[in-house]
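Supplementary Text 2. Reproducibility record for the structural model of the 385-residue chain.

All settings were left at their defaults, and a single model was retained for analysis rather than an ensemble. We include the record here because the model underlies the residue-level annotations in Supplementary Table 4.
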Amino acid sequence: MPFCWNVSLLPQVPLIISDIKIRRLKLIEEIGELVPAWPGNNMTFRRGGGSFVEITTDEDHVGIGPGADPSLLEPAKAQLLGKNPFDIQRHAERLGHYIRGRGYGGVAGFDIALWDVIGKVTGQPLVSVFGGGDESVIPYASMIRLSEPRERAEMASRLKSEGWRAIKLRIHHDTITEDIETVQRVRESVGADVTITVDANQAQSATDWQPGIRWDYQRALQTARELEALGVAWLEEPLPRYAFDDIARLNDAVSIPIAGGENNPGLHEFTRMVRENVYDVLQPESMVIGGITATRKVGALAEAFHKKCVPHHGGGDIGVIAHLHLVASWPHAPFMELLHDPPIGDYRHKFSIFKNPPEVTNGTMSVPRGPGLGVEIDPDLVENE
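Retained model, structure tokens:
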């Protein structure tokens, strides 16, 4: 997708990328661990810690992005040093080809940092660079655990009392009865005022096998029909990642919107999704697909085919802020995913690296208005080199 810059905002002499670093952050506090609903290791939550990408220009503009694997630093330098940061499409192509670092800790950190540089050079928040949009978005509290029905209902009630307007539940218990009971209890606890979405987490593996309960088509169909009656906004990842034919068949058979795409790394995969009506809600993950440059293409594709686009969570810190700007710029993005399963999985733990973190207030999150991403890393947390 071509980009058209406002010439009056561009520097008269092309900028040059002069340095790239991966900066470490001091650990403030260990919070604890949660067992996630999806296959994998326990999730550890901390305040502080981790790393971030830092890209500097010859005129001392500094952009930040999510942390990247240290092994990617020298290859990234080979592709970016001495280049104009505004050549964002070409950079994304070369990073994707020569580095191939995908997933969390991959090339997305460099791509997002470049966008932050562009916003700072032009003096505009990224939502404006992307064409303008809303001043705030509605985040949904994306639950992490596959918990029992009573506890999820109590959690949902607390979130409603705090002003949250939307939540996402994880369901794939041993039986459909347990799954539906979870949603029923949550619906009873929050009423019609809170949007409920449901994630079956069936697309985590690229193969036909993964740990835990695996749904077949009949279970997905029966569950979807039960959820329709409960007013669920969408059913996410009801079948394996590449079971496109069966997912499209399911989508044709039910009225509840079907969502997915967070683990799909290629634009060609999303092209097939929209052509074959696989999903109603596309959920690209910028950390998986290689950054904001590619995620914007999925957003444009979704809009062209009259689909919703709600990106996957973005890693919890800088990636979430990038998604915040994206969602605000898209008229077809009704929500933003925000991992939030308090107290251990509270979204504010990952936001603790920021000097000026945005917060959920009355069920919305304001888009930072500073240039670029509009957030700053707390300088007291940056480790000395």
